[in-house]
Amino acid sequence: xxxxxxxxAQQREEVIxxxxxxxxxxxxxxxxxxxxxxEYEDGHYGVEFRxxxxxxxxxxxxxxxxxxxxxxxxHDKKAFVFKExxxxxxxxxxxxxxxxxxxxxx
Length: 106
What we know:
Elements: H1 12-22, E1 24-25, E2 28-32, E3 34-39, E4 45-50, H2 62-75, E5 79-89, E6 95-103
Antiparallel strand pairs: 1-2, 3-4, 4-6, 5-6
């Protein structure tokens, strides 16, 4: 198994702003699908978001997940996105998407 890169933690408000922007569609700039940020000790983050971000599907396709990963990297070249992603339940028991990412330390 390949070793993970070292991550550099960022200010919580800046990370929330970053993912809020990424999880927004250009046609609806005032609506973000971001729900919750989880901070891990090694400096990477988990993001929970509403599945409505993925237009016209209840279960996101592999292509939709890959497009989201590419969008994260386009917004910040220092972003590392974990390959694994999953569906989860939000606090109100509605289905949500979940992915993890971090910012390279170097």
